[in-house]
Design brief:
The chain is of the alpha/beta class. It contains 21 helices and 14 strands. Bound molecules: uridine-5'-diphosphate-glucuronic acid.
Length: 512
Amino acid sequence: MDPRTFADEVPTLMIRITVLGLGHVGLPTAVGLAELGWRVLGTDQDAAKIASLQQGRAPFYEPGLQELLSKHLQSGRFVPIADSSAAIRAANVLFVCVGTPQRASGEPDLSQVETVARTIARNLEGYKLIVEKSTVPVITAQWIKKTIERYAKTPTGASLPPSPVRAAPVLSEAEGSASERAAKPIRAATHGEPGQAVRERAVLGEGSEAAQGNPATTPGLEFDVASNPEFLQEGKALHNFFHPDRIVCGVESERAWEILRAVYEPLHCPILRTDLNTAELIKHAANAFLATKISFINLVADLCERVGADVTKVVEGIGRDPRIGMGFLRPGIGFGGYCLPKDLRAFVRLAETQGVDFALLKEVERINQQRAELFLKKVRQALWVLSGKIIGVLGLAFKPNTDDIREAPSIPIVESLLAEGANLQLYDPRAMPNMQQRFPEQEGKLRYCSSPDEAARGAHALLILTEWEEFRKLDLSRLREQMEVPILLDGRNLYDPASVRAAGFEYISVGR
Ligand code: UGA
């Protein structure tokens, strides 16, 4: 894809984008959109983050992010600014990517979303499309709409009566089925010069419901809310952005639909059109299903261990059936991160509030919570007494190619090993600064190392907790020579058991 071709034909003044919230979703989205040719402003409540971005520094590690950030700060297509009101006023398409952290109940805390909606309400000048990208429960888009109506002023200065929050209307038959719409090439409705025509018509309102006297929003206020959930994976976020399997757009008006199609047109990807609630539900259902696959295969792995079967062969044997698929069937120490665990709980809570007992997903979570403890049992079985033993740990991030340790399985494992008196030597290619904040160095108890070799030195066992590519390439014989006792406990099935054993290790992995 040549990102410039689109940019060059674009009257960029037509669509001006602001991304609100520059975290793991917002920042890759913002620089990705800039790479597609759009002019993008980015804003965040964290002033220090904006300052660091303005100086050209990405606030977290994500492959390719630093390079793309530098490129578009220089091209001027991405501009981080601290003043969110100004950033909102300057744009007509607003991507809401703020955080939705978890509350004690398991429900997401939507206060950042509400704050953004109120700020948008105070800064509505002309038509705006508000695109919800944060992972949120169903009906949040309706709440954003209601909040904007409630806090916005009409041109006469009076607040508008809010519309009731209700389920999104079902799309009319005339618009075709979701699959028919998805199958259409995204340029099908542009009639003429691809890209430009649709962009002009979309933003100017020509040919849209609004221009035909059929406004999609409350009279007097010009805005639409759309739900455009993201499916980016940390560690692959930019790859996912530029090569999406699908893009989901929940919309309530032709104008919103055409704008989103125009924004994503350069990606040449199937776009699924839905209503707002459906789009929101798709996101939660996707993450819940992925989590279910992982917990399923983890139990199969446990069974394999009992009966002496090999889970990797089982995965191949079932995964080659396209109805099952190979993806997300890697057994190990469980899923972590900021999304899968949190979204699973939020989905269960949502189901509960709607009177649906999603017991299946509660079980998925319960199985996942046992994974770290099961792994620790293997460590105890292998080492007998933990107190005073030196244990090397390779991998702390919740997955490779990120420095993120949120809900990482490494956290309960490190915590327990420390509590049981082991001396830890930790190494991770990226996540050590974050882990240090959680577990500072302790003389004679916990030490951060500059290489896998250093983590293995003098160790009575080496644990693999994250499947970093660089660990796959380790010289196992050299590693073994560093160790006091060559025991390798692999929580991610990184190696072929025969070759590790041939290198002189006692090797314990998962489900084989
Ligand atoms: C997840 C989803 O995969 C994305 O599609 C989604 O956009 C994102 O959440 C989100 O909601 O923002 P992410 O949390 O970045 O992405 O990471 P995943 O690749 O899903 O991995 C999650 C955890 O599952 C990791 O700890 C990983 O090690 C574990 N995992 C994954 C397994 O244990 N086995 C597998 O087969 C796959």
